[in-house]
User: What shape does this take?
Amino acid sequence: MENPAGLIPAARWQKALFVLPAFLLTFFIVIFPTVFGILVSFTSWTRTGTTLDGPGSGFVLFRLGDMVRDISEAIRSTWNGIDNFRRMAGDDAFRTALKNNLIFAFIGVPLQYLVALGLALLLNQQIRARKFYRVVFLLPFMISPIAIGWMIGKAMFDARFGPFARIARELDITLAFYDTGFKAVSWLIVISAWYAIPFVMVMLLAGLQAMPGEIFEAAKIDGAGRWRTFVVMTFRLLLPVSLTAVILRIIFEFKLIDIIYVVTGGGPGDASQTLSLYIYKDGYLSGNIGYATALAEVFLIFVIVVISLLLVTVGRKIRSLY
Amino acid sequence: MGGNAVASSFDPQPFRRRTNRRSIVKAAGAAAAASTLGLGTPLLRRAHAQESVKDQILAIPGPGAGAPSEADIERVGELSLNTDKQGAFEGQTVVFQGLSNAGFHVNVFRPISRAWEEATGATIEWIEVTQADSYPRMSQAFATGNVEFDIIEGSGGWEGEMLGGGYCVPMPDSVLNAPEYDYDDIVPYLQSPTRTWDGVTYGASVDGDMHHFNYRKDVFASEDLAAEWASSGGEGDFAPPTTWQQVQAYSQFFQGKTDPDGLPTYGILDPLARSGGVGTYFFFSRASSYAKHPDDPAFFFDPETMQSKINSPAFVRALQDMIDAIPGAPPDQQNADLLKTLGDFLAGTGTMAHWWADIGANEYASDQSVVQDKVGFSILPGSPDVYNYGTGEWDTIEGNNFAPYLAFLGWGLYVTTAGEERGVSEAAWDLVKHLSSKDISLWMNVYPSGMNPSRESHFNAADWTAGGYPEADAQEYLDSIADSYNHPNRIVDLRIPGQGEYWIAAEDEWTRAISGELSPQEAMDNAAARWEEITDRYGRDAQRELYTASL
Assistant: This one.
């Protein structure tokens, strides 16, 4: 039966055919890796102890079938229940990495925010050459984190050949920037901030420039002081943008690996290691695929929970202000 | 001999004039064509060229010219080229996975191979890996069955996986018996068991390895420091240390002192950062004379039970030494890896370093080096006492216990079965023959390349003067290497499957003690437990059998 528009209704198989590309894409990019990751996290899969036969030859679907059988057998033969999660509970390196992630996120990001806010307020003023300053302040964000790790973390802060250490030596002071966990993490927060502040600053500056000028003029006429205007109006109006910037930075800090890899390699020992770096080392260098995948799954859940909590609690608070 | 008679009538001048690549390639092609026609010319050419080629390449770039440029290295490759495969591999691509470290290894192989590529028509695709990445990358390729490379530059220590796993093909007679490869010239421990599996030769040695001891001669010759040493109650004469205990004492003494150049003096440079397991070689150097008993051939495991020995008091003492030496080391030494340490020592930082033979190889011929004429060499320091694993006691050894460590067992070139399946193994072996030939190998030792003596002919100190080394210095350097290779109490590095995993696991743990997260004993107990897991995973009996055989 023809519909009013004169189109022939699609047969069931035709509908399925239209949906198939999207389904296959979603299956191979999202569903399969997720399910595979969850399954592997319950195994003792190791790089050298668990070998796959590799794809065979012949028709592609047969090879796909071989591959699925191969992987299923590998998972079945290495299944170890919740052993990985039990091991994680007593794993000092995991605890240190998690602690460092929290430090980078909840100490590093507020510091970045405060400096970025100051700079944004400054660049929002009618100062000379402000366009020039905006570009200059943005430069660190344009450079790759690896290059920043090298330029700042290695070259500037090198304990023997870096400029700071040389000046200190002239004053008979021996400087070492990364010889303890506390110092290493502290300096990494500084380096990460140097990279990230421009990003937060640009977002805040955009927020500031989008604010309507009339209400500030009205406040001025009403006799509001600069501090009160800032606290009650500017800061509050900026809160949605601030929340977005902070949440994004927290997500980035949770994923932090590049700068640390270049500057300290997570050392000394594990002291400045983050979870991303720990997962890379345990999975790739040590070849503990099962355990590293379990770490990654826990990390994923952890990030989702933390970010959701932030969005719900802080978001609700911000909405209540309007 | 006929060859000599013809050679003596051969005018060497054309060889000296041949300075551009195309003319060399043409000559090689002509020689190959003549060989095909059975004229015997290549053999005559080679017999004559043997001396002159060596002399010509050793003069590139020559004393005082700094590190060789890429053009210099290309020229070495041109002059040394001796292939009868002119155009034979046209259209083939050989994939080579090798190390890319500080301008060494692949950075030298690549320009040296250009003439070979041009002559044979093959193309080489280079996969460069860092030192820390080299073992995991190889291991992952084998585990996933995704072996992209036809030639791998690998350690003798990885042969359990490479050769035992069946991922490489035996060396063909065309290479093994080639005069330019000169198998008999290779030092005995690199003829066998290293580079072999079940008595079959697989790998071509391009490098020989051991850790020896490097110290600053000028610092230990300083009269001012000697006087301070005496006045501070230092034990014995102020002289280069011969035991680890003396190394510790000097590392403490040097704090706050200045060297004859007026720069701060630091003690021993231990690479203390994690480097994908590579740091563990340095840890074992430190433990060598404490843990290797002259009456017990086994250093790493108890061969009866395959139980790890690395949490024994000997290894714990070595780790404690490394921690105790930190205050005397340069600041941030905890984050210094092996390349940082090498660069620092060559840049004049630190008075003592235990390293592969690269410090000596770079002393005169590297642009980085400011320590020309200032470095002395010896085998690794000893100890007056050594731990007896059988009795659980420390035994005193008259004249100190020395145990040179043949760490890493040298880089070798191996052709993979994947390369054979892709049909490029003949080209791959021809390239391996070129890169590991006697002449090139000598040049790579005398100039910075990351390669250290692996042939008897490398120990001729007179050859080293071509690179700017005073002969006496070269002799001292070479003697310390030869003494390490031939020492009766030497430690031959582990060569069983999972070697890289054992090293990474140990490094994970001992570095935790360096940062103060664990005590040395806790760290080594953890490391030993992880070694047990690895052994069980590979199969304790199989590992024990291989380990026992290696002793």
User: Anything to note?
Assistant: Chain A has a mean pLDDT of 89. Residues 289-321 of chain A form the longest helix (33 residues).
